[in-house]
From TrEMBL, chains A, B:
Residues 4-60 form the HTH lacI-type domain. The keyword Repressor applies. This is LacI family transcriptional regulator. CDD domains: HTH_LacI. It comes from the Bacteria. GO terms for molecular function: DNA-binding transcription factor activity; transcription cis-regulatory region binding. Pfam families: LacI (PF00356), Peripla_BP_3 (PF13377). The keyword DNA-binding applies. It comes from Flavimaribacter sediminis. Keywords: DNA-binding, Repressor, Transcription, Transcription regulation.
DNA sequence: AATGCCTTGTCAATCGATTGCAATATCAAT
DNA sequence: ATTGATATTGCAATCGATTGACAAGGCATT
């Protein structure tokens, strides 16, 4: 009743295991006579044969597996990038490479432990959507054993192939928009500074403000997490400032939602009393009764480029696809 | 510069590979002399030895891997159950079992393809947080080869060990609460009927309404997805009814949020003009300026019991831990 | 008929770790 | 000194698939 191994198939058919292996493979199938090939394939199907990928991995030295590190599984943007990545992993609709997905939650040594697991399982590559400076060392070490690709977040010191969004320009877009709308004093509610994303958004935003002569509230405001709860708390800090801004750039939509709810609790209207912009163009952004002005993340591009990097790196191409940075897009809605 | 294999370690130390294997193992370490054991472990560490789990899997017939099917990676409840599940997979803080996480998005044949992949990779068990009637067959077939555990969603026909929330009672709790608050005509915005969860919530809710003499709007209202967007659309259907209810039970928080935003756009206040209750106690539920009355999902219990089932099943215990259903908890906030 | 090429298939080694069994060493008890 | 028990280590098979080397047969060319 158990499923047969390749050896058993071979016995039943009176051929060698190697013939079975080749007949069933993609690349070596031409080495076996068409009739034999068909015979083998038919028999494999109705015997319910299922190749043992652990054995194949061992022999090939390739596990057809990719380690995916993600900072936060609840974050829509990460998930959507992973989704397009996984979709691009399939060849002709057949999933050949299985992702091992693991979450770091930005905990200091989570990444290095997970990377150890990945390497023990002999992943063919690692894609990190979770890089923080704390993991720099772990990723660097890993990159000596296996291709490492960065997505969404980069690490300047490492020079690893990456698929990114132009976060600086994204921040700049928001700033320009707010300036156009006539705001004179603005404010950022920044995400936690451990990832490059938020730093770049802040830089891009501040640069434009400075260039165009718009002031930011003096004290920089950070959230501990990029969540609505944290955004809500952060609004208190905004109101602690000597001067009250007329617009807030929240570093992502989750923070923006927290900010908006907090404003509502204070009886303030968005955007009349305070304009709010977010980042990512989350699903919720469109659903809110005051639809959110935000920056659409180039999800598909980032995911697909990460997959492209993966394929080019494991194929060992010399003119490998390089790092790329994709442009986000400002989505103007009612909130700012 | 490459990392050494067990064989190379053995040569350097002048002992047999089997000794290395035993010294480094958990369960057979007592078979090797304490000094040898220490010597081996030290050498392993500073040679940077890292066991090859693909080889170990092959030989052991156990991959120390578990297939996790999840319907939706964006759903906080699923993710949180998976998180506690993964945490409970570690023994003494060491991750011994690696989860292979795959998403079905409730697409008809996604589950069976993913299960094929899992089985080819020789997972030790499969945990499905994605079961729909469409996958019944695939899960049943899988359960003949490997332990299959259901979580969150069950399949009555299959009698597989499961870790569940008492969704029926959850629905009932909401109904009782609405009755207590004096509502006479209520309405459900149901989630898609492919999963048991929503059906049970609906049944529990309706039963109590009937028992306590409260009317529901006649036409049942379903959403195509359990998302805010779908919830928003569904509100139109509610207003299409001949009579307007005074309270809405949305089958989860995401739907509830859509409903609330749609109400706001119509200029209606929650809960004064329309009470709204959700399900799951999502993070957002607490953050909203009108905090959401909802049902807290027994996340920890479900995740931990699923892990318990896994451990007991692969240990082959005869008095295996059985299916369990955990009680959710009504969280009364402002919205209803 | 001899030669060479091509097609098809077999043989056997191999990937790296695990484990049942056997072998040796050590020690105590008689 | 002999026996037996116990502790420690080595030997070699094994898990299941893949692949380089090679052999057999067929066919065409000269």
């Amino acid at each position: 009743m158990r499923r047969p191994s390749m050896k058993e198939l071979a016995q039943r058919l009176g051929v060698d295991r190697s013939t079975i292996s080749r007949a069933l493979s993609q690349d070596k199938a031409h080495l076996v006579a068409p009739e034999t090939r068909e015979k083998v394939r038919r028999m494999a199907i109705d015997a319910g044969y299922r190749p043992d990928l652990t054995a194949a991995s061992l022999r090939r030295g390739r596990s057809q597996t990719i380690g995916v590190l993600v900072a936060d599984l609840e974050n829509e943007t990460f998930i959507n990038v992973i989704r397009t990545l996984i979709a691009s992993l399939n060849v002709d609709g057949v999933p050949v490479t299985t992702p091992l997905i693991a979450e770091t939650r930005d905990k200091p040594n989570a990444a290095s432990r997970l990377i150890e697991t990945f390497l023990s399982r002999r992943v063919d590559a690692i894609i990190s959507l979770a890089s923080t400076e704390a993991d720099e060392r772990a990723l660097e070490d890993a990159s000596r054993e296996v291709p490492v690709i960065l997505a969404i977040r980069t690490l300047a010191a490492l020079n690893l192939p990456s698929a990114l969004c132009d976060d600086r320009e994204g921040g700049a877009m928001v700033a320009r928009h707010l300036v156009e709308r006539g705001h004179k004093l603005v404010c950022q509610v920044q995400g936690p500074p451990l990832a490059t994303t938020f730093k770049l958004r802040a830089q891009g935003f501040s640069k434009i403000c400075a260039d165009l002569g718009v002031r930011e509230v003096t004290k920089p405001i950070y959230t501990a997490e990029a969540t609505p709860t944290a955004g809500k708390k952060a609004l208190d800090l905004v109101f602690d400032c000597e001067e009250r801004p007329t617009a807030i750039f929240a570093h992502n939509d989750a923070i923006a939602i927290g900010v908006i709810e907090a404003l509502r609790e204070r009886g303030l209207r968005v955007p009349e009393d305070m304009a709010v912009a977010g980042f990512n163009d989350t699903r919720l952004a469109q659903v809110l009764s005051t639809p959110l002005t935000t920056v659409a993340y180039p999800i598909r591009e980032v995911g697909e480029h990460a997959a492209l990097l993966f394929h080019s790196l494991i194929a060992g191409e010399k003119d490998e696809a390089g790092s790329r940075t994709f442009m986000p897009e400002l989505i103007v809605r009612r909130s700012a």
